[in-house]
Please model this.
Amino acid sequence: MAFSRKHHAQHCIVDAAAPARRSRTSGWPDYLTLLSTWQPFARLETKLARARKQDEPVLYQHILPGLDVLLCGVRGALPPYPRLAELRARCLEAIADALEQPLDRLAQGGYWYERDGFACLVFASCSREAVLADYGMATR
Model:
């Protein structure tokens, strides 16, 4: 899903007195800020809450275009899990970290992040069927 033209235009205003070269402080939001305000992340809290309450992993398809996340409690971990705001921040950090790693690994099973009894697996959407089979989940 692409950004709307209105959203893009808000960040592309050019000052005539500004230098032609764009610097890092040109007004573009940093990547994590952009991720946290992107519309599909609005469902992240719901998915995290569901994953905390049930013993089965919860799939978040296309959290970013072409990227899925599997959220789950770690086997043997006992609640209480961290608050939803903290889990959301950790999930966004895990996604950002996974995107900094070699992308081939995302398609070969993804990256596993675990802390305080809660985990997320960040992987490429093209490998969803294989990942879900590994976790005993039917493809949807």
